[in-house]
Amino acid sequence: MDFGAIVLWMGLIFSLSTATFSSAQTEPLITSLYSQLMPWFAALSIETADLLIRKLAHLSEYFIFGFLVSHVLQKRSALMSVRQISVAIPLGIIYAISDELHQSFVPSRTASAMDVLLDTIGFICGSVCFYTSVLIRQAKTLHSDTSPPSQ
User: What is the DSSP string of 34-79?
Assistant: First the structure.
């Protein structure tokens, strides 16, 4: 199931790169939502708010992707954590580039090197967050194994 989650997430990322989720299609929804749910956001122009939300979406979708890939590598690989990260990050970058390449063929979308950078940052943060949580769990387990029994 762990590979299935990655494939499903990659499919979601791919679908978000289609014309259906272009700025022209999503801006009316974003405008409606942000004016109702986040009135403090109203100081920004619609275009700025749309751009900010889109860039945050890049970071968050690749954060989750990095977390998922790191989880699978940690679960299925005999490599040390540092080596797993050094395998995961190029995979994330390659997928980010392929996603932008896909967008270059969609008439209402454009490819952007800045988006690849945001995707990469999100992926790295997701990987680092995953491995930090692994280290914290290991430290807690080690601490509980070495603690003297309570009376």
Answer: HHHH-GGGGGS-HHHHHHHHHHHHHHHHHHHHHHHHHHHHHHH--S
Torsion sign across C-alpha atoms 133, 135, 137, 140: negative
Q: How far is the C-alpha of 151 from the C-alpha of 148, rounded, in Å?
A: 9
Whole-model pTM over 0.85: no
Greater model confidence, 50 or 1: 50
Per-residue pLDDT tens digits for 44-66: 677 777 788 888 999 999 999 99
Extents of the domains making up the chain = 2-145
The pLDDT, as a whole number, for residue 61 is 96
- Give the CA angle between residues 140, 144, 148 to the nearest 5°: 150
Name the residue among 87, 39, 36 with its Cα closest to residue 66. 87
Tell me which residue of 88, 67, 66 sits closest to 77, measured CA to CA: 88
